[in-house]
Amino acid sequence: MSEQRSGRFVVVGAGPCGLSLALQLAKAGCQVDLIEASAQFSRQFRGDALMPCGQEALARMGLTELLEGLPQRRLEGWRVWVEGRLLFEVAEPMGSLQPCRLVPQQRLLEALLEQALKQPSLRWLPGQAVQELDWEQGRISGVRLADGSLCRGDLVLGCDGRSSLLRRQAGLGLIPQGPKLELLWFVLPGPIQEDGVWGFETLVRGGAIASACRSANGDLQLAWLLESGQSTPELSAEAWSERFAAMGSAALAQLLRQRGEALSKPQRFSVQVGMAERWQRPGLL
Ligand SMILES: Cc1cc2nc3c(=O)[nH]c(=O)nc-3n(C[C@H](O)[C@H](O)[C@H](O)COP(=O)(O)OP(=O)(O)OC[C@H]3O[C@@H](n4cnc5c(N)ncnc54)[C@H](O)[C@@H]3O)c2cc1C
């Protein structure tokens, strides 16, 4: 039986961070409200790569068995193609005991939630967006949800992702580290054969940078880096496939030329690496 601890925690966001943290707190006997804006975990555009450090973090949380029970495959390695020629290739594991694994993030989140829901001290609030922080005498004392209700706790944990509303409302700024990257993300539905794409392929040609990787479920995930401020090119699925095909191995080119019309429309993402000098306010982490 787990040791009972006092303290009420409000965890906002049920991504990998919020779910694993809420699970640890609830297992330790703390009262936890876990609030998630979305009602489901099917975020179509997410990479599957679980790095050795992520695997180690799960192991330290006693979640090795949970991870082993998920559909997955090990990443073969990394390849870099420049101007159509293979510059180098390195097999996994690279400098660590475990290879990088490909695990569908949705399945990992569902498995963590299943464990969390077994903890009697955890209250799960899906489909509820936090709208604002609640303050009491200069200290953050909880959060107000979109339906107007209030969730109070001794500590609010903002796990609401890269553009965290909680971080911004608490006045915790991010110092950008380098320019913002804009990228387009595509999926070619599988199954893609193993000999079509090997490992994570970085593709560089004529100033363009792209990547290709076979996901855990056998789809092909492709990314295209845009120049800063560039609008999304209006291209057909076949034209995008041809762009990728011209950049890497003959096997990738053949695959994309045969199946190119099935390529999804591009989804645009921006990536800003930033550093927060402060991580906390009274009542908030
Ligand atoms: C296209 C893409 C590909 C990626 N590929 C990889 C990869 O291959 N390997 C890898 O390790 N990482 C990858 N990442 C990054 C990885 O997804 C993130 O690092 C990880 O999801 C961060 O986890 P998190 O729990 O901090 O935040 P998130 O996963 O962003 O979760 C935040 C949660 O908070 C919820 N939320 C937000 N605002 C509110 C609110 N106001 N109220 C309530 N809930 C809220 C959101 O709905 C979300 O569920 C990728 C990201 C993208 C976008």
**Low-pLDDT runs:** none
Alpha-beta content class: alpha+beta
Strand proportion: 25-35%
Write out the CATH superfamily name of the domain at 8-48 and 104-169.
Answer: FAD/NAD(P)-binding domain
- Helix count? 7
CATH architectural name of the domain at 8-48 and 104-169: 3-Layer(bba) Sandwich
Could you name the CATH topology of the domain at 8-48 and 104-169? FAD/NAD(P)-binding domain
Strand tally is 19
SSE ordering = EHEEHHEEEEHEEEEEHEEEEEHHEE
Overall shape: it is globular
Give the overall average pLDDT. Answer: 93
Strand line-up of the largest beta sheet: 6-5-15-16-17-14-18
Helix content: 10-25%
Distance between the termini: 28 Å
Instruction: Give a list of the ligands.
Output: flavin-adenine dinucleotide
Largest sheet: 7 strands, mixed
Reading off the top of the CATH hierarchy, the class of the domain at 8-48 and 104-169 is best stated as Alpha Beta
Cα-atom Rg, whole angstroms?
21 Å
Description:
The chain is α+β, with helices and mostly antiparallel strands and 285 residues long. Among the domains are: 8-48 and 104-169, FAD/NAD(P)-binding domain; 181-271, D-Amino Acid Oxidase, Chain A, domain 2 (2-Layer Sandwich), CATH 3.30.9.10. The protein is 22% helix and 33% strand. It has 7 helices and 19 strands. It has helices spanning 16-27, 52-60, 64-68, 105-117, 165-169, 237-245, 250-259; strands at 8-12, 31-36, 49-50, 73-74, 77-82, 85-91, 101-102, 122-126, 130-136, 139-145, 150-152, 155-158, 175-176, 181-188, 200-205, 208-214, 220-226, 267-271, 274-275. The strands form 5 sheets. The chain has a 7-stranded mixed β-sheet with strand order 6-5-15-16-17-14-18, with no helix packed on it. A hairpin with a 2-residue loop joins strand 9 and strand 10. Helix 1 packs parallel to helix 4. The longest helix has 13 residues, at 105-117. The radius of gyration is 21 Å and the shape is globular. The protein starts with 7 loop residues before the first strand and ends in a 10-residue tail after the last strand. The mean pLDDT is 93. The structure holds flavin-adenine dinucleotide. The site of flavin-adenine dinucleotide has 25 residues, from helix 1 and strand 2. Flavin-adenine dinucleotide is lined by residues 12-18, 35-38, 45-49, 51, 129-130, 159-161, 165, 185, 269.
